[in-house]
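yo, Binding protein MsmE is done. seq:
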Amino acid sequence: MKKLVVTMLIATMAIASAGCSKAPEEPKTETTETTAKKEKQETDVTLEFLYNLNGEAISNEVQAVCEQFTEETGIGVEAIMPGSNFSDIMKTRMASNQLPDVWTTHGWAVARYAEYLEPLNDFGFADHISSSIEEQITDKDGNLYTLPIDMDLTGIIYNVNVLEEAGVNVDDLKTWDDFNEACKKVKSIGKTPIQMGGKDSYTFGNLMDFIAPTFITNEDEANQEALLDGSFDWSKWNVVVDQVASWNAEGYFNKDAVTADFMTGVKALAAEEAAFMFHSASGISEIYVQNPDTEMGFMPLPAREDGLKTSLMTGEHFAIGMSKTTEHPEEAKKFMEFMAREDICAKLATKCGMPSGLDNVESDTGRLEPFYEKYTNNAEILNIPYFDRKYLPSGMWNDLCVTGGTILSGQDNATEEAVTQMKNSYEEKKAQE
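structure:
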């Protein structure tokens, strides 16, 4: 009897810089491989499942679910989490046409991966896609390309106890000026206002991607249209980089913002040493694993000025697509059906701390339920797409990561270089569309 090998590959890799900016120097790549074995595999087929869920608790749950699939079906699964360079790995594999059997589509099911994915309309779960996310994972012809285990509702996560100690009420944080005052109060009690984990470069990308729409596209149709048609004036990007540079100059980031990783940030918020983090609500699940006695919440992104609405980003989080060229289509279909099963989908969405993307599945959002009730379908809050997914050409996520890191690393002329890099990369990639 063959053995299941479930492999978890955790790697930190430098993302090459583009344009004029220089990325902060990162540690050399280190790869750790952990192997768990089960005497349950009864076939010669092992599916490769590549996923990009960051955080130990969530990744461990994915591994456990894959083992359960093998126990029930006899089909092996090699589940691989390659770390912060997931997008680069997938681009390389698309170019070489050597794709995994199944993979997480991380917001790009339609725009980037559609030509490589098998439409999922004939699956039973296709009738249960939540209306809140259906449009974002379906193309203009009605083809469904990914299974949404959960749905993003993302703003800024925060430690309730730290803010109470600092005398901050998140309901009062309507604009970035309000947020800046809150950071000042947090710093005055000796805590870190904004926690970053730049060793995992996607955290720099999150920072830029989260604040950009609040300054550029929210309630501004002219900028929306200009970004989509290629005519955007990139001098307007100065307001984004200047805000980040201002936080850096004020000492609002953790001192090791460039070298700390995501889990370091998780532990800082869990220990009530930091207040805010630009991350989806799944980060809160990781924080509660570290310290179940603390109190966490999430809030909308502030507006650029009084009179405008705050906002929350919506879209894919944990979503799985199936390769149209897999050599094991029947086994891959069984895996997709298994992951969509009510008990499995509910378990995974619950671990992520997010609502399920299937309307027949109830996830237990636990201590976050009051926040979802407060913000879901709230007419006073804009629901917006992720900025890079909607308004930037494919491939510019790396530019957000690199330019964010450049600013926080304190390089000379960092803001000017960041604007130049974004402009040059945008124009180059737009020309290739």
